[in-house]
Amino acid sequence: MKVLIIGTGYVGLNTGVMLAYLGNDVTCIDLNQDKIKGLQERKVPFYEPHLDELFSKIHQKMLFVCNYAEADIPNQDVIFIAVGTPSLPDGNADLTYVRQAAESIAENLGEKFVVVVNKSTVPIGSGNWVEAIIREHYFEVHNEKPNGLFNVVSSPEFLAQGAALFGSFYPDRIVVGSEHELSVARLKDLFGPIMRQDFEAPAFLPRPDGLKEVPMVVCDLTSAEMIKYAANSFLALKISFINEIAHLAQKVGADVSSIARGIGLDKRIGDRFLNAGIGWGGSCFGKDTAALVATARDYNLDMPIIRAARDVNYGQRTWVVDRLQEELKILKGKHIALLGFSFKPNTDDLRDAPSLDISRLLVQRGAVVRAHDPVALNNARSQYPNLGISYSEDLNFILDEVDAIVLISEWPIYRDLAWEAITPVTIIDGRNFLDKERLSQLGFNVIGVGR
Ligand code: UGA
């Protein structure tokens, strides 16, 4: 099939590379010329495991353009909108880029029917809004109605950064929000190889044992949009729940890891997303929980559970610094090393990363902060040059004569450090990830979350 992807961020590029690998003819458009130029030169603009490898394999099957005249919209079978929807200060999503994409589609529609798939996380009701924009804008430009030329479908994305390609090839489900038979049939065709799992798995991304098929949930458009928000809010809630339990565990002398295992084995609860720690960050959970609360507010509805999940989450960041202060008594002038800076391992993304708030709080209280990360420091230097902390790739420098260490994200290299060569200090293990027993034997004072 001929597929156009609008937006070459995490969602757009991973989806495009996956669809090209499955044999589709994929064009990617992004108005950021530098990004497109880089992609034409085979440079992936962000860090994502295996994406480089797969991209270099199928690069010749993909076309990268930065203007709509080259995007061949009249001949596309499916167009994915995968542009960013950042948060506005009031919690609502900024839809400027979605509007631009919809208007550009309208200007370039041909005579052939095309399915427009909304993959960006947009507020509930936006599918209809995109449809209306295309319709109205088409009428403005062509002075006639675009009847039968397009249909807007919602197919939210569930991939997680750091495992994005895995999530693209082996998703738990595909959601298609549409009551339009032809559109649903076309997407069933496009995603057929994923649903049947009959494609040859990339060598470096073997198919999980036992995965024989992936279900497609077909529903109305609004429900599909809401599935995305409900899924992310539920995952966020699960993390905040275990963090709340962790604080009580600490008080009564219990171990949250055992509690998580004990409750997670109950299939009704499930064992994933029950790792206590400094909480969630990233571009999704914070934004989507805020947007759901804001949407509910528009309908005079409160969402106290989701608000509480947010409060617990952001409180974890202050907890780390308070706990450190309790241990060191005075933070002023103390050297603190942060291990990991992105919001989770295997990504260089710093959006809503807990490390940022933790750094700010430490600096406010007078600490001297040095941060390390295996892949995110270039982004840190360019996006946060004025945090008042120093960045270094050199772990010897980072850990030299420190007063305390905070583990922010669970990169294996941190567990495997030559800890015996480091002077024992207090460590806040923000992910309950380090080998506490070994480190305690070496004289470190390891403080986990709820252990
Ligand atoms: C999340 C969802 O997991 C995806 O399904 C969704 O598609 C995506 O948002 C999105 O909306 O685009 P992502 O933000 O990439 O994916 O990363 P997660 O693996 O979900 O982790 C989010 C945060 O939660 C990280 O900071 C992680 O460290 C934290 N986390 C995760 C915990 O603190 N504890 C856990 O048990 C799990």
Q: Mind explaining what this structure looks like?
A:
The chain has helices at residues 10-21, 33-40, 51-58, 96-108, 126-142, 164-169, 181-190, 192-196, 221-252, 256-264, 285-298, 304-328, 354-364, 377-383, 395-399, 412-415, 436-441; strands spanning 2-6, 25-29, 62-65, 78-81, 114-118, 150-154, 174-177, 216-219, 335-339, 368-372, 390-391, 404-407, 426-429, 445-447. The protein is of the alpha/beta class and 451 residues long. Helix 12 (304-328) crosses helix 13. The longest helix is centred in the middle third of the chain and has 32 residues, at 221-252. The termini are far apart. Residues 121, 157-161, 232, 235, 239, 273-275, 277, 279-282, 284-285, 343-344 line the site of uridine-5'-diphosphate-glucuronic acid.
Instruction: List low-confidence stretches.
Output: none
In the CATH hierarchy, the third-tier topology of the largest domain is known as Rossmann fold
The number of domains is: 2
Helix content: 40-55%
Ligand list = uridine-5'-diphosphate-glucuronic acid
* Main sheet strand line-up: 3-2-1-4-5-6
CATH architecture annotation of the largest domain: 3-Layer(aba) Sandwich
What is the CA-atom radius of gyration, in angstroms? 24 Å
Structure annotation, total helices: 17
What CATH first level of the largest domain would be assigned? Alpha Beta
> Quick one: CATH superfamily of the largest domain?
NAD(P)-binding Rossmann-like Domain
Structural class: alpha/beta
Describe the global form. elongated
User: Strand share of the residues?
Assistant: 5-15%
Quick check: average pLDDT?
95
Question: How would you sum up the major sheet?
Answer: 6 strands, parallel
Q: How far apart are the termini?
A: 52 Å
Number of strands: 14
